[in-house]
Amino acid sequence: MQLSVVIPAYNEAESLPELIEWVMRVCSQNFGSFEVWVVDDGSTDATWEVLQRLHQRYGDYLHALRFARNYGKSAALYAGFQHTQGEVVLTLDADLQDSPDEIPALYAMIKDQQYDLVSGWKKHRQDPPSKTLPSRLFNYVVRIFTGIPLHDFNSGIKAYRGVVVRSLDLYGEMHRYIPYLAHSMGFRRIGERVVVHYPRKYGRTKFGIERFLYGFLDLLTVSFLVRFGRRPMHFFGGWGVLAFTAGLVIVLWLISDKLYQLRTYGVVRREVVQQPLFYLGLTALLMGTQFFLTGFLGELLVRLSSTKHNYLIVGKV
């Protein structure tokens, strides 16, 4: 199959008929084989009923999954990715702010220019300053932190080689950092394309200002997982050895100093336990032991954990 389109949707009953019609028109004009997967992320409006009617209209070209509750965009994307069969997989947001007319150009960048991932850049974003200004700051920090020169990491419109999305392990809020995750897995050909961005036509945004604070916290989490997710002992054990060694050196030095004073002067000016440096060394020893044990437990959890993808699908068409 040439193309798979994945669309996460949460309370988008009004926009879905227009969006799906638009996607179907563009795909049928440009591709011989394609499929569209819409993931209803626990919507509380008529999203699922709308998807059922649309499935009856478009048949095998349109498929949908329904979550039992709202699990978040990462879970929706992951579930959609696992059902795709296309050589190229493209994602769109369901709010009609992304243009399906961009699909052929993004597809061509993957197929003809051999990119692994192409991210849409909403250069002229049709959102209020309360969203655009924090977004620019967020993207600047992520760009510096990851070294990947993208202007819009969290863009909903992206294109991927199929092998990329089926290799991703998404959970939590990791969808913001898909380019970074893909890059860390060895998919280094990451590109960008300026895309059209429309004002929201129906409803209101599902994200508040708090997402930018969470975004920075998630960046620290993803960075740790990328570097040490499969080897936590390398992080915690390293700091543990460093702290334990420092504490041991301090305690041994204090004991040696006491013995030296006894041999030389026959008297000790201050007992070891009366010196503040002793408690600093003791604290370092305890911290080192705790860091080491944390790393050991982390290694056990990595090996014993079954799955992080605990969403429940209650409907499929």
Give a nutshell description of this structure:
With about 325 residues, the chain is of the alpha/beta class.
Question: How are the SSEs ordered, and which strands pair?
Answer:
Elements: E1 3-9, H1 16-30, E2 34-40, H2 47-58, E3 62-67, H3 73-83, E4 88-91, H4 103-111, E5 117-121, H5 129-146, E6 158-161, H6 162-165, H7 178-184, E7 190-194, H8 210-228, H9 232-265, H10 276-304, E8 313-316
Parallel strand pairs: 1-2, 1-4, 2-3, 5-7
Antiparallel strand pairs: 3-8, 4-6, 5-6
Helix pairs in contact: 1-2, 5-8, 9-10
Task: Report on the architecture of this protein.
By secondary structure, this protein is α/β, with parallel strands linked by helices. Helix content is about 50%, strand content about 15%. It has two domains: about 5-230, Spore Coat Polysaccharide Biosynthesis Protein SpsA, Chain A; about 230-305. It contains ten helices and eight strands. Strands 7-5-6-4-1-2-3-8 form an eight-stranded mixed sheet, with helices on both faces. Helix 1 packs parallel to helix 2 (about 45-60) and helix 9 (about 230-265) packs antiparallel against helix 10. The mean pLDDT is about 85.
